[in-house]
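This section describes the prediction task in plain terms. A model, or a person checking by hand, is given the sequence of a single protein chain and must write out its three-dimensional structure as a string of tokens. No templates, partner chains or ligands are provided. The sample shown here is typical of the held-out split.
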Amino acid sequence: MKKARFHCSSLQTYPQTITIFQPDIPLRSLYLRNRFFYTFGTVAFLFTLAYPFNWLFVPALTAFLVGVVLVGVDVALLYAGNTGLAAQRSLNPVFSLSDDNPVQIRIANNGTQRWRLEVIDELPIQFQRRDFTSELWLAPGEKQTLRYDLRPLSRGVYAFGNVLAFVSSRIGLVERRIAFEQATDVAVYPSIIQMKQYELRAMRHIAHETGIKKMRRIGHSYEFEQIKNYVPGDDYRSVNWKASGRRGALMVNQYEDERSQQVYCLVDKSRAMRMPFAGLSLMDYAINTCLAISNIIIKKQDKAGLLSFSDVVGATIKAERGGGQLNRILEALYREKERPVESNYELLYEAVRRLVGARSLLLLFTNFESSYALERALPTLRRLNRFHLLVVVFFENTEIRTLAQEEVNTTADIYRQTVARQFLQEKKEMVNKLRQYGIQGILTKPEDLTLNTINKYLELKSRGLI
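The expected answer:
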């Protein structure tokens, strides 16, 4: 999990709905601070020195009595009345997988004392954090906000606990634990944040070195859009001679991409997709990409569908482009789980034949770790490609690539690097093998999966191959 970042800032306004702490049993909520042990440790040391130096006994006894009185005053300040503290946790009702999700804790001091607070947020067990604390001072009437980010790496329900505050006065010998009832559950869905980012970039055709780019049209589809002035590079076959004669200048017909084409995301849920990279499994990378590409498909006026499989068929959503289609795909992707079994591609073929009628673009997200695994699936993939346009998307092992690029010092290092390079070469040969049979292939790093998949979809659509 990415390390959280705390920021404190004063608040001008504060929500009316706040959580007041629940009273604790004094003995259970009272804790001794380090200053207590330093103080009475020093007193004990003075008493020890009083044995050889009798004149130190009176100062030691005086220090002891003063310390006891200060402890009593400190306890009285903490428990004599209401501390006036209130806290509220603010977060999004839904978290995005693998993204930084903001969380805020608003704390107010409505009392008359200045308090020192050590705030602990009880994070969900999935983050495995037990040292999540922040320290601050609150003056009477002051309000502050603690801000931090959480990056979930698995889908599902995350249970937040209470917000705990260890409160101490300026004396600082003891502290009181106050629990603010803020328990809540948050669902972690496939990355909605990435979906919106890629939608913006794809719709605006922003071209980056590693981003989404608009492909040059090869040929054109049959959806007429408008007549425009000729510019160098336009297809001569698109010249509209009647319009050119009326205007006295060359005019060309402009066509737009065909609409209402069916695009299906086929997600492999087998054990081959359980391999983690940067804390995220390959299946979760594929799920994030499915959501992003489905959104762009619908925005492009095409129809998006979903099918997941392993040894059994999972979610099946027929390709549509209605208003609720993206929500249906999102909910289905949220519920998907990996299975510790091998993929059954014959079952995939039967499911596609039943679900998909017209010719469609099939984006198959899977992973082949060896050429033998590809050879077993190749006959089925060729049959699917006979009826549809199939694009097989599988993953490059970035850890092996790092190993292949490391500096070698020993014979064992040479051996490992040679094996790593053979493995990478085998992956490239898989792509060539697919192309030999007319099957589109994408070999990509896990972190570049969404970009490369969207680029391939836009390329195939601009070339009129769907």
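For orientation: The chain has three domains: 7-187, 192-216+258-462, 223-256.
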